[in-house]
């Protein structure tokens, strides 16, 4: 088992009929009375979440910032940052899925940063977020786990860039998880959420055997549960039991538990982020496109874990690594998620070369759990994905 530090201060309030507890949780975080709520395109006003949250905030002065995109845009978020700098708030409450929560992490951090926030996202030397306005979340879409971690991914469509950020200041003070919201979601979003949670788990599992047996078993428990409940939620989003398990799986997949003491990959995510930046493909779908082909290219690296995965998750026997890859792809497709890049773009020539060049320019010469996935291999993986 590798050495590790584990820290997660986020309080989770899980279940239905809990929004009346929001004021008490805010009071735990601040003595102030001025609250900003952040959200996306307005679906929360259709599914009743907005009204319920606003009722709970009736004793507060509330300002709103809406329009955070599915891939939160730097320029949009900077408008909220400027709004806060002109009229400070004491607390921010994000109401939405991972994109709204990610965007809010940037807003609360950038509002406390004196320099150029883009320098932090591009990892310019000496630039980092250290402080943030306290914030909490009301989750409306199980997928990214952003409600219980400190990381975020921010897009800049002007530059066709997608960048990550993190740090201790990015942990929500609390997060409300109400599985009843799942019944209001489009099936495409539910499918994306299932794939996202599944791939977050695989990125921390599909590496090489370790002696951290507990983390491996927890990961396998999440994967098995997603395979069991995912189709049930797709068939009946109002199935509270299935939706509850999906929501908690998505949170557990990326709250820091799985990465404790183990090697992790994330190369699929790094390639996937570029596909979103270049072509606007949903994040989860980029992962479903790239992962099977990355596992083929790095098969020898991952062979032992692929066999373990195939045997424990799919009940296969013997040297079943290749079949395990096929079963993974089939599971994604069973959710209605296309797994070929050609289903999303016909840019066969420039996409692989552009991403390889970007990796080279950033010095990303050694990705993956063994630090040996090269830009040329990334190019090959993308070519195989069409």
UniProtKB/TrEMBL annotation:
Residue ranges occupied by any Fe-containing alcohol dehydrogenase-like C-terminal domain in the UniProt entry = 191-353
PROSITE patterns listed in its UniProt record: ADH_IRON_2
Q: Name one GO molecular function term.
A: metal ion binding
Q: Which Gene3D superfamilies match?
A: 3.40.50.1970, Dehydroquinate synthase-like - alpha domain
Query: Does Chaperone show up as a keyword for this record?
Result: no
Q: Does the keyword Glycoprotein apply?
A: no
- What keywords are annotated for this sequence in UniProt? Oxidoreductase
Record domain Alcohol dehydrogenase iron-type/glycerol dehydrogenase GldA: where: 9-179
Q: Which domain of life, per UniProt?
A: Bacteria
Where are the bilayer-spanning segments?
none
Example of a GO cellular component annotation carried by this entry: cytosol
Which family does this protein fall into? Answer: Belongs to the iron-containing alcohol dehydrogenase family.
Q: What is this protein called?
A: Iron-containing alcohol dehydrogenase
Organism equals Brumimicrobium glaciale
């Amino acid at each position: 088992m590798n050495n590790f530090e584990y820290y997660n201060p986020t309080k989770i309030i899980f279940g239905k009929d809990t929004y009346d507890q929001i004021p008490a949780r805010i009071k735990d975080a601040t003595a102030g009375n001025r609250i900003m709520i952040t959200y996306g395109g307005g679906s929360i006003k259709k599914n009743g979440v907005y009204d319920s949250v606003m009722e709970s905030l009736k004793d507060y002065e509330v300002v709103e910032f809406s329009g955070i995109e599915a891939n939160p845009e730097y320029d949009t978020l900077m408008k909220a940052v400027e709004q806060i700098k002109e009229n400070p708030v004491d607390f921010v409450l994000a109401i939405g899925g991972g994109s709204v929560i990610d965007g809010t992490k940037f807003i609360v951090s950038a509002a406390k940063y004196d320099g150029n926030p883009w320098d932090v996202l591009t990892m310019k030397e000496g630039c980092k977020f250290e402080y943030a306005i306290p914030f909490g979340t009301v989750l409306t879409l199980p997928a990214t786990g952003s409600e219980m971690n400190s990381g975020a991914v921010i897009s800049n469509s002007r530059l066709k860039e997608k960048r990550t950020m993190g740090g201790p200041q990015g942990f929500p003070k609390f997060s409300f998880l109400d599985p009843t919201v799942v019944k209001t979601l489009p099936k495409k979003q539910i499918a994306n959420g299932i794939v996202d949670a599944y791939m977050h788990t695989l990125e921390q599992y599909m590496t090489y055997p370790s002696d951290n047996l507990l983390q491996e078993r927890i990961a396998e428990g999440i994967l098995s549960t997603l395979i069991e409940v995912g189709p049930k939620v797709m068939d009946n989003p109002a199935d509270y039991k299935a939706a509850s398990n999906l929501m908690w799986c998505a949170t557990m997949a990326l709250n820091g538990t799985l990465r404790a003491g183990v090697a992790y990959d994330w190369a699929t995510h790094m390639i996937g982020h570029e596909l979103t930046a270049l072509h606007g493909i949903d994040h989860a779908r980029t992962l479903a496109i790239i992962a099977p082909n990355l596992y083929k290219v790095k098969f020898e690296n991952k062979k032992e874990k692929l066999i373990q995965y195939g045997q424990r998750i799919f009940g296969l026997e013997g040297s079943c690594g290749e079949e395990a890859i096929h079963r993974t792809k089939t599971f994604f497709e069973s959710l209605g998620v296309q797994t070929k890049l050609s289903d999303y773009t016909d840019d066969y020539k420039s996409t692989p070369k552009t991403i390889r060049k970007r990796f080279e320019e950033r010095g990303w010469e050694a990705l993956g759990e063994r630090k040996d996935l090269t830009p040329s291999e990334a190019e090959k993986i993308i070519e195989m994905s069409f």
